[in-house]
Amino acid sequence: MKTKEQLYQGKTEKYSTKHGCIIITVITIAVCICLERPSAFAHGPDNMEFKYLYDKKDVKEAISLQPQTFKIGGLFSAYRHISIFPVPQDNAVGSNNMGNAITVISFPKGKIDYDKYFRHVDDLAGRGKYLPPITSDLIGFGQVRVFHLFDFKKKLHREYEIVFPVSQYIDNIAIADARRRHFLFEIESQKENPRNSFDVDKILQLVDLSCEKPVLIKKFKKEPGTVWTTTKDRVFLYQVFERQLLVLDMNLEPAHHPLEDVVKQYKDQLNPYKDEIGFSRIKPHPYLPFAVLHGGYEGSTFIGWAKDKDCRPHLLLLDSKEFSHSPDGKWVVYKTSHIGKSSQTYIMPVSEKYPHYLGSPILLSNNSFEPGQGAWTTNPTAFVGTVLDKIFRWDLENQDFPGKDKMSFHDYIVQEDLKKLTKEKRQGLGK
Hints:
- The chain has 431 residues and is mainly beta.
- The chain is built from 3 helices and 30 strands.
- The strands form 8 sheets. Strands 4-30-29-28 form a 4-stranded antiparallel β-sheet, with no helix packed on it. The chain has a 4-stranded antiparallel β-sheet with strand order 5-6-7-8, with no helix packed on it.
- A hairpin with a 6-residue loop joins strand 15 and strand 16.
- The two termini are 32 Å apart.
- The N terminus is likely disordered.
């Protein structure tokens, strides 16, 4: 067996585990292409020029983590392009379009298994607006104008009609209060005489689904050009062109969050019209004090609000979008956004040991997984993706690696990555 240092020195290792075959590869290249273009912060604090935290060279030389691959077979062999979403069950994801039921897809001992629930429910198939598990027993998702709520413990399904006119539909959903079954729905309404296809009204609705019928608690009108996301107790509404962040609590009342202060402080650098950072999505970490901004021309950006770390915005990766954190917060998956090229899927370790919390990219797949085609599992933490009639699974806990009896796979990756970054004197390390 090779030493752990060789994992980061252009070597190829093949490890076998009881869950299948895991291959970790380091792709070496002779010519390293680094991004040297100055960032938008040449005029910023201390008049310093910043580069991307991880550049093209880091992406091209990224180690790769190979998945277990399963072909959908048996009674389900006819299904293609299935949607998947997270479920409360361990080591499993769910699907609502493998027949008219909720199918829980699990991976016992490295194999694949299927269990069907709620067979009596009509019209479940199709895409949905999926949520993380609501509680240990509840899941739910929206479809066009309705919301489906499933209780595994009580074996109960309820269908709630959220909007009524055909000119309205559910654009997005978030959990506001799982205990009280309060949800946030973004409702898009078509105008009677729209100027163009983008001329629509969007409203956030706080809705109580604890009874047999939905109860509207409050409405909040979104201004045009505003994107929104949530943390565990806050709603972020970012006005892209005004570069302003409005913070509400889960009752849609005015509130505050440290991210608001950071965005206000660096407002001049968050300009989508100039050669500076522009973004249309905010992905806050579930536990640590930072967020990834993405959806702009510059790719993605790190921004933080910890008192003991550098909170200035830092360009993160050039081609990157659709970031998704693992339930334990130790990993984040993203896809590339190459213009005219096929997208890829990468994962980064997350740790407080990094100067900016985020470690070097690791290649998962030369495929990308659109919303509804990728989902996380718990116990163990794994990322699952679907393409055509195949299911791919990256187990991020049960791996063979040097010193596995002393540390987790996550901690091993972070340890070796920090050694590499320190040796290269990156991000303030090794000085």
